[in-house]
């Protein structure tokens, strides 16, 4: 019987790419998101061979309902992000920084906690942090603080919840809808700048991160670790 992977944030970007990758490797996949239309579109893009669940990961009541609905799972992937909290430290909006934690840290924490009643004891949970947690990039203190909170949680939970494996992937700059807050012309310019700074000469694609997530799910000797998958961007910062 195929192992069941539940991907929260699976309707676009890294989550959608991870669903596609895992389906190709024989896993059964359920994807979740807040928008029913985007979930339906993602299901179609995946040839209608995934289950979908609509819920808001920041709502604890909705969260409990969703996990009771999906039943037993072997692995949980939390492809949750927030673009709130970026900007120069002297002027960054404190409300945005708080919102960044509410959109990123709390849903990761809450989903992992609620999942404990559904997940296989020796299964896995994979979080998504980001390169700002590990790299001194001016203008990202708010983002970095939230992402570092995710990374800091990983080894603690790996030790506390063993034999359940807890890991994370920390992406660099990846071409996903996360960047949709920028006008298209600005996004092209930003990506070109980061590509020039990155040793591999390009920004990441969702499939790059999906490969790392699939590795953490399948490798039963990996726990308590955050894999930095940034094309070497951190080397130039």
TrEMBL record:
<keyword id="KW-0560">Oxidoreductase</keyword>
<dbReference type="GO" id="GO:0016491">
    <property type="term" value="F:oxidoreductase activity"/>
</dbReference>
<dbReference type="InterPro" id="IPR036291">
    <property type="entry name" value="NAD(P)-bd_dom_sf"/>
</dbReference>
<protein>
    <submittedName>
        <fullName>NAD(P)-dependent dehydrogenase (Short-subunit alcohol dehydrogenase family)</fullName>
    </submittedName>
</protein>
<dbReference type="Pfam" id="PF13561">
    <property type="entry name" value="adh_short_C2"/>
</dbReference>
<comment type="similarity">
    <text>Belongs to the short-chain dehydrogenases/reductases (SDR) family.</text>
</comment>
<dbReference type="InterPro" id="IPR002347">
    <property type="entry name" value="SDR_fam"/>
</dbReference>
<dbReference type="InterPro" id="IPR051122">
    <property type="entry name" value="SDR_DHRS6-like"/>
</dbReference>
């Amino acid at each position: 019987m195929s192992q069941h992977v539940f991907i929260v944030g699976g309707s676009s970007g890294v989550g959608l790419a991870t669903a596609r990758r895992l389906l190709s490797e024989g896993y059964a996949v359920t994807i979740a998101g807040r928008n029913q239309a985007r979930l339906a579109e993602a299901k179609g893009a995946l040839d209608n061979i995934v289950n979908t669940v609509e819920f808001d990961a920041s709502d604890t009541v909705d969260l409990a309902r969703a996990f009771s609905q999906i039943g037993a799972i072997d692995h949980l992937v939390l492809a949750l992000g927030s673009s709130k909290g970026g900007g120069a430290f002297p002027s960054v909006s404190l409300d945005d920084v708080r919102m960044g934690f509410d959109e990123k840290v709390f849903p990761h924490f809450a989903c992992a906690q609620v999942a404990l009643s559904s997940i296989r004891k020796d299964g896995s949970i994979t979080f998504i942090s980001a390169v700002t947690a590990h790299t001194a990039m001016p203008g990202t203190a708010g983002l970095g603080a939230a992402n570092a909170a995710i990374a800091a949680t990983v080894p603690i939970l790996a030790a506390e919840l063993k034999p359940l494996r807890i890991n994370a992937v920390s992406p660099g700059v990846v071409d996903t809808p996360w960047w949709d807050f920028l006008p298209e012309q600005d996004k092209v310019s930003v990506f070109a700048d980061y590509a020039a700074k990155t040793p591999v000469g390009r920004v990441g694609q969702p499939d790059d991160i999906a490969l790392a997530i699939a590795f953490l799910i399948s490798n039963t000797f990996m726990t308590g670790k955050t894999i930095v998958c940034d094309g070497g961007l951190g080397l130039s910062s």
